[in-house]
Write a structure and sequence with these properties.
This protein is mainly beta. It has two helices and 25 strands. The chain folds into three domains: 6-34 and 200-297, Sandwich (Immunoglobulin-like), CATH 2.60.40.10; 37-196, Jelly Rolls (Sandwich), CATH 2.60.120.260; 313-357, no CATH class. The protein has helices at residues 313-323, 347-357; strands at residues 6-8, 11-13, 22-23, 37-41, 54-56, 64-66, 70-74, 89-94, 100-107, 111-121, 129-136, 141-148, 158-168, 172-180, 185-196, 207-212, 217-220, 230-238, 241-244, 248-250, 254-257, 263-267, 272-282, 285-288, 292-297.
């Protein structure tokens, strides 16, 4: 019968002494953030290119505007107009005239959203409260971030860059809007909107296998995660050192198939403890499971009664006698668990004994 569960390499395993692995479970979390997907990246509002210095009703490419003042500025007509961060143009929005500057986009997946935006403070006492709004139809609500400008006098114009974090709960159309809560113009430059999707926990469910020599062991992994996850298997060549395996013969271990699939099949196994692990990879990174041992037991020798004479009929007779619950003729017989699978007495032990007696693998 199977023994009680025990911990193996950080996994909670169900140990079973059978010819093939029986499923045991454990999880390894992969929660590394993906590289951000940039949905809006207009740089410094350099397109379209304006021909001369001044304030224009022209809006940046890809944006729409409403109100009396919503456009771009090029060049410097007075000393108190901020020098743009990038290039020579920046956006101007005056909210008191119901002005806004909007950019529509599509949210492809639920994600954390970051709006990177730079807001300028002018020379003199005049300042304003810039506002960035994120409207999403899927969320049914408006996310608002207010960039509070101080009423202060400054010797020279300056820009402050903000990273505004918002959460988009579902895919769908959305709009990012630039505006001002004060009576004066708000100045924006270098606007980007990024989505950063975190991977869902990656579930690795592995097996431990204990098998007699020459038999088959199987390791399974259950994969989950976003973006899609790929898996490969590795074999431990020395403590703490794992290398990728490929389909075919693995020296000192046996035959391998399924090296890049969710099921690793090991056949013609050689005696020893062979440790494997699964490595899961997606666009967010990779995560490896702890090592899981495959313990390959050698069958008992043919000299079952340990009389020094083998192969012999007496060994078979003693084996059958002990299998039936009788006493060994020499009082020194080996365990009836001939195939070392932990299940005895069993027909498999007799079959393994007969195979080895006939010169075959256990």
């Amino acid at each position: 019968m199977p023994s009680q569960p025990h911990a193996i390499g950080g996994l909670r395993a169900l140990r079973t002494l059978a010819c093939v692995g029986v499923c045991c479970t454990g999880t390894v979390a992969l929660a590394q953030p993906c590289d951000p997907v940039v949905l809006v990246d207009n740089g410094g509002f350099e397109a379209p290119v304006l021909a001369q210095p001044g304030l224009f009703s022209t809006v940046p490419a890809g944006w729409t505007a409403g109100g009396r003042i919503a456009g771009m500025h090029r060049g410097f007509t007075t000393p108190d107009v901020p020098v743009p961060l990038i290039g020579e143009q920046f956006a101007v929005v005056k909210m008191s005239d119901a002005a806004s500057m909007d950019r529509a986009f599509v949210v492809p997946f639920a994600a954390s959203c970051v709006v990177d935006v730079s807001f300028a403070t002018r020379v003199g006492a005049e300042s304003t409260d810039a506002v960035v709004r994120l409207r999403t139809a899927a969320n049914g609500a408006t996310g608002t971030a207010i960039l509070l400008g101080e009423a202060r006098s400054v010797a020279s114009p300056g820009w402050t860059t903000y990273a505004i974090n918002m959460v988009l709960t579902a895919a769908g159309p959305a709009t990012v809007s630039l505006g001002s809560l004060g009576p004066s113009s708000a100045y924006f430059d270098d606007v980007r909107l990024r989505l950063r999707r975190d991977a869902h926990p990656l579930q690795l469910e592995l097996t431990e296998a204990r098998t007699p020599e020459g038999r088959t062991a199987r390791l399974d992994v259950l994969l989950g995660g976003e973006p899609p996850v790929a898996v490969r298997w590795q074999h431990q060549v020395e403590p703490g050192v794992f290398v990728d395996v490929a389909d075919g013969v693995l020296a000192g271990v046996g035959n391998v198939s399924g090296a890049a699939s969710t099921t690793l099949l090991l056949t013609a196994l050689r005696p020893g403890v062979h440790t494997f692990r699964a490595v899961a990879t997606n666009a967010c990174g990779e995560s490896a499971s702890p090592g899981v041992p495959v313990v390959v037991q050698e069958c008992s020798g043919l000299d079952f009664n340990n009389d020094g004479i083998f192969p012999s009929d007496e060994d078979l007779v003693d084996f059958l006698r002990v299998l039936a619950g009788g006493a060994c003729s020499t009082e020194a017989c080996n365990s009836i668990d001939f195939n070392a699978d932990g299940i005895f007495p069993a027909d498999e032990d007799l079959l393994a004994f007969l195979r080895v007696l006939a010169g075959e693998a256990c």
